[in-house]
Design goal:
By secondary structure, this protein is α+β, with helices and mostly antiparallel strands. It contains five helices and ten strands; from the N terminus they run βααβββββαααββββ. The mean pLDDT is 94.
């Protein structure tokens, strides 16, 4: 089905998402949190909430908007993700999210969609914003503009060794655990489905799961593990990751409050999240 260009600029109705501490803990376990990070895993300590949890309340409106724009599940690839936090996330509550299709862009064979969301808390105050870059395979060639280039200004310094390096092996069940936070795409669970769409090795790890590892590691590397001090972060998904792969996050402090990031898979020595960065206080 061709993309509906008339959807550009359209927004969803506000969609409520009510959650409890169990949802934030489930997310933390899904992105690899260990017993040494008990503040994020035990309700007796709050619990604290990992900054990457901000993607969870936006999944439903994002998928709703993609479906209305004509995106087919088998053709969609996550290209990049940005999160901007306006306040630390509460361990429970009700949030309201509006998603808007910011643009559809043409790369000949592929189409690129930019979808932005704005989420407010129960008092109607801004909680966080996100920007999703979605790749629609085989749905380009409609004569549209190419996507705009936005530079963060937070780049890996040439020739400088990383200021921190964190290595962590995912479990074979990692995608099955992460999907319980809301992304139920069978690509991450069903071996037969994965083969049908070209992944003979089997179900992939969610890009946002790897992204969650990255943000955990960024907090560990620059703010002593206090994820509430992260203010914004972004990364582009470069290569697939499979459950059981070992993720290596490296970070370069470029100036106070800013760090350039990169995630690679140790077993294949290839970058899986690039163009990444975070800001923090």
């Amino acid at each position: 089905m061709p993309l509906d260009l008339a959807m550009v600029g359209r927004a969803t109705e506000p969609l409520a998402y009510t959650y409890t501490w169990k949802d934030t803990v489930l997310y933390a376990l899904g992105v690899g949190a260990r017993v040494t990070e008990l503040d994020y895993l035990y309700e007796g300590r709050g619990p604290k909430v990992l900054a990457g949890f901000a993607v969870v309340p936006t999944i439903a409106p994002i998928f709703d908007l993609m479906e209305k724009a004509g995106g087919e599940l088998t053709s969609i690839v996550h290209g990049a993700q940005r999160i901007t936090l306006h306040k630390p996330l509460a361990p429970s509550g009700t949030l309201s999210t509006v998603a808007r299709l910011k643009g559809l862009y043409d790369l000949r064979r592929f189409a690129i969609g930019h979808i932005e969301t704005q989420t407010k808390d129960e008092r109607g105050e801004p909680a966080f914003d996100t920007l999703w870059t979605i790749i629609f395979r085989d749905q380009g060639g409609f004569g549209g503009e190419t996507p705009p280039r936005e530079r963060s200004g937070i780049d890996i310094p040439k020739g400088k060794p990383a200021d921190f390096r964190i290595e962590e092996t995912t479990s074979k069940e990692q995608a099955l655990l992460y999907r319980l936070s809301g992304d139920l795409n069978p690509l991450h669970a069903d071996p037969e489905f994965a083969k049908r769409v070209g992944f003979e090795q089997g179900p992939l790890l969610h890009g946002l799961c790897t992204y969650g590892y990255m943000t955990r590691h960024a907090a560990q590397g620059v703010v002593g593990g206090d994820s509430s001090r992260l203010k914004a972060f972004e990364g582009s998904f470069k290569k697939p990751v499979w459950p059981g792969d070992t993720l290596v996050t490296e970070g370069w402090a470029t100036e106070p409050g800013k760090v350039a990031l990169q995630v690679s898979v140790k077993e294949r020595s290839e970058v899986v999240i690039g163009g990444a960065w975070a800001t923090y206080e």
